[in-house]
Amino acid sequence: MALLAMRRRGGETYPMREFEDVYDRLGQLMNAALGEFAEERPTGVWTPMADISENEDSYVVEIDVPGVKKDEIDVQLSERELIVTGQIEEHESQRRHRKMRRTGRFELRTLLPGEVNAERVEARLSDGVLTITVPKAAAAKPRHIEVTA
């Protein structure tokens, strides 16, 4: 079995960072293969962990952004593409024994599955989780169709 090569910084290894990098690269490859986002992100920009779900009325995106303040996050919606960018600062003044959380610039791009009502989008930051609620357009909502004989 082949082992993954690990990068070293100052003699320390970060195996979790390697897995996160592989996950980010796989996501970029999938997006490129599916034709969603062919453009390259700048080096060092990473994708935060997120859940995307939907209910009858809206799409809900929950993004983990620990330590980020609301004025450090930019949320944009262009047609059906949701783009969330920001930065998590690293505290250099502390002596670090282990680093498992990511820092630096982040970017999440996702294409929502249906038409949206861009005028009613809401974003709320609470306890390190950014929750974005994107209401569905009337055309994207399920509707009852009566069956006739």
TrEMBL record:
CDD domains: ACD_sHsps-like. It comes from the Bacteria. PROSITE patterns: SHSP (PS01031). Residues 40-149 form the SHSP domain. Transmembrane segments: none annotated. InterPro entries: A-crystallin/Hsp20_dom, HSP20-like_chaperone, Small_HSP. PANTHER family: HEAT-SHOCK PROTEIN 20 FAMILY MEMBER. Belongs to the small heat shock protein (HSP20) family. This is SHSP domain-containing protein. It comes from Nonomuraea glycinis. The lineage of its organism: Bacteria, Bacillati, Actinomycetota, Actinomycetes, Streptosporangiales.
